[in-house]
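Task card 7
Instruction: Convert sequence to structure tokens.
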Amino acid sequence: MKTFSLSLPLLGRRILATKADSPAPWLRALRRGLARITGFAPGFLSFSQFSPSLAGVLPRSWRLGLAARKTPDPSHPGQRDRLLQQAIDRARPGVQQVGSVALVGAGPGAKDLITLRGAQRLQEADVIFYDRLVDPEILDLAPARAKRIYVGKAPGCHHWPQEKISEALVAVAGRGQRVVRLKCGDPGVFARGAEEVDALAAADIPYEIIPGVTAASAAAAALGGFLTERGTCDTLVLATGQTEKDAGNARWMAQLQPGTRMAIYMGVGAAGNTARALTEAGMEQQVSIDIVSRAQQRDQVIAHCRASTLLDTIETSGISNPAIMFLTRGHAPVSEQQS
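Output:
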């Protein structure tokens, strides 16, 4: 008797042997037994491959029952959902036993200035530790289930000491949770990110650093200009008015050479020292000062002055932190260089 393989025509189909000469359970048992003997998958049996004589003995309806593989019906809603979940599970990486921490830069404050990667990490977060200057609207990007923990610091008033923040990051991530440490601006610019990373590395906690739009970039854009300008400012210095040691701006004033723009973070409280240092260095008229408070936000404030009027300008303009103070000492005109 002529035999043929049913593997191709039957692939992905359901075949019902309506005139089977034996009960369905008996056929299924026989099919499984033959598969174990021959090593062929039940749905792809070619009878001539394992026993030509058997192919001639079995009734046609039995052969159909054996060759028709019992596969899930993709048209059935329940089967379709199960198959989809199986595909997702196969593509999903292995289950992570230890959590992770993402140090995310929230940008200068406006919700739409966070990076796409930063927003994605927020959407994946289980726990979020966020700073004082982070816009509350940015937290709306996280799922409702994510726990939000405020760890903000104000000058002279730290809600959480830095050591406690680092310990909390290690403890929460150590329980297998995905943690976001949300920092204003960029986590690598005056944000004490290095201290937190050191603690995570010591505890073997995986971490990543996601950059953000730093306040200096946002403030320069708010002024309608740029941090560097060819022919005017080809050197950029980032400094802070809040230093760990008492030396303060005395350490960076020497860097304010011609062709330099200096962006001072957290400089409003130290404005008096800055004005005095510029005056003592004889740069009162050589250095222009631009101040941007709450850059790129609805209540943004911009002011311009010289060292002699710096304190008065801050008071009359209602400038407060967070603010960036730009000190710009452009290249001297050619006539001044020749004289």
